From TrEMBL:
The lineage of its organism: Eukaryota, Metazoa, Chordata, Craniata, Vertebrata. The keyword Cell cycle does not apply. It is found in: Nucleus. Residues 162-257, 273-286 have a biased composition (Acidic residues). Residues 154-286 are annotated as: Disordered. This is Acidic leucine-rich nuclear phosphoprotein 32 family member.
Amino acid sequence: MDMEKKIKQELRNRKPSEVVELILDNCRCPKGKIVGLTDEFLNLELLSMADVGLASLDGLPKLPKLRKLELPSNCISRLDALAEKTPALVQLNLRDNKIKDVSTLKPLKKLTMLRSVELLDCEVSALLEYRELVLAFLSQVTYLDGYDTNDKAALSSGSELSADEDGSSDQPENEEDGTEEDDDVESEDGNTEEEGDALDDESDALDDDDIDDDIDDGDDVGDDGDDVGDDDDDVGDDFDAGDDVDDADDLDDDYDDVKEMSPAKKRRKCHDDDSDDSDDSDGDDD
């Protein structure tokens, strides 16, 4: 499928101005030039034309919002059109193209937002100290072939770098995160101490209540002891009352005996009682 037909297929009934990403990989370019792509794609941010047989960038329209351009496995040897047509470019993949030396990269110096370039499998990548030369020549570029000057890897190939990505923002962010974590730990420690104090206060209050309850229990025991003493006195009184009851019972028995006597026995008993009284009287006179 040629490039023009591929573009129509990728539109999917959309207007060119509605397209943000356009993938044209593995289609064919007549005479090695871009065809079918117009400046109507003014909102395009990602354009991929991998292995389409491009020999030049002639025919590339003005794409003011384009940030990522994928052009691997082509035959591109000149980059002049990029400086004028893609001013917002951040990532550029030229892997396996006809880039012979560092001077070929001169048009890229005008792309002030450019942060990542890939040149592996190009002739220039075989130069001695190739990385140092390219990074020094393109001072705005942070990542070459996916790594910076400190061999720190860039984001994954599916992600986009920001225009201000320079690899130096990680440390301050980590420091801020560490500060926030320390604040969180201190806050948790403070909360733990406050909870511990609250528990101690509750424990003291409970202990005081237990002591008061014990004192009240002691008073109850004293009152119970007094009640027991009173009960003992009542028992003693009951015993005394019992003795009086026994004496009354004896008198009742004597009375009943007298009532049951015959008249003769009563007279005899009275006589005996009088004799006893007389004897007692004589005894007293003596």
